[in-house]
Amino acid sequence: MTGAATHVKGLNGLRALAVVLVFLSHKAHVDAIDAGKLGVWLFFLISGYLIIGELHRSRVRIEQRGARRDAVVYVFFMKRALRIFPVYYLLLIALTIAHASFYQRDVNLGLVWHYAFLSNLWIGVVHDGWAGTVSHFWSLAVEQQFYLVAPFVLVFTRASRHFALCVAVVVASAIAHLALMRDGASEPLVYALSPWNFAMIALGGTAAMTGAPAREPSPLASGLVLLGGLAGIAAFAVLRADFVGSPVSPVPAVLDVGLAMSLYAVFLWIVHRQDSALVAALDMRMLAYLGTISYGFYLFHNLIPSRLGVDPALYDRLDVPPLVQEALPVAMQFALAVLLAHLSWQLLEKRMLEWKKPAEAAIRSRLPASAAAGPT
User: Fold this and answer.
1) Other CB atoms within 10 Å distance of the CB of residue 17
2) How many domains is the chain partitioned into structurally?
3) Which residues cross the membrane (predicted)?
4) Is the entire prediction scored with pTM above 0.85?
5) Residue 167 domain boundaries
6) 345: Cβ–Cβ under 8 A, 6 or more apart, which residues?
7) What is the end-to-end Cα distance of the chain in Å, rounded?
8) What would the DSSP string read from start to end of 316-345?
9) Binning pLDDT at 50, 70 and 90, where does residue 131 land?
């Protein structure tokens, strides 16, 4: 459970798949399954895998007197701030100015709540509904709330207890999710504010602390595990979609747990089978780059007007087939989201991340490991 940090292939490809699923949900209005939920849950798994894994390894170093707790916490928040805040708050400032002038003037966007990373509380309880084109910020709020708590819990808890702690979060969240469904909580509340969102992050953490099997399974057994996980995702996603808008029932919560565990099984397979053809496909250059710029893509995509590229009269004059007429606006909106994300990455995000190593070095030089003292 304490392996050293290594580069994990395929994660950027998974991020790309996640943002494509979210995009299809918001822009192509895929309703056979909840593609948006699958995409967001995949993001949560990846975040848990990376962040909890990092904090777990940091705690191991602390116990070995190789790091200080205060330095670890400072470095963690510095990294998160550089990665998340610049583009997010610039976008919010721009939205605030635009909303005051012309943009969705008739919609209460709850921008103050988004500034405080409380979008999920705003959507699930205060507003009790989806807040215009900024509704997707709820998942960023979940992650930020996790970031505020995780370092203090994990850095100040012995590494040997981390796995059990994550499992406890998953079990408690499943019970709470079931209770919300049973009690008839509103769909926005369940979607944005259920503790099950944090359970997905905790599941990612368990993947980071679960070593590869001592004996590599046969290709047949490995393939069956992957196919079983993919079949579970498909089956639970379709069954869950049948319960949208249905009367109060605990069944959707059970299906959510089944869907999450199937997604987790495939994720675990990918991080432990780094030499597989699937991982190689996920690491293809274009897919990996979309994953690299996925944060900007996620921020911007829902703000692109849904009418962009919609012109039935023009398409009819040009004899454009109906199927192409439907696909063209989605393709144009996707291309614009990619362009905006690319510019955000190249002009801002990438430059901000260049400060991470110098800032980390400065923190560690001021708080050297040799000065660590007191109980750990």
Assistant:
1) 18
2) 1
3) 38-55, 87-104, 137-156, 163-182, 188-208, 220-239, 251-271, 278-300, 327-348
4) yes
5) 11-365
6) 292, 293, 296
7) 19
8) HHTT--HHHHHHHHHHHHHHHHHHHHHHHI
9) confident
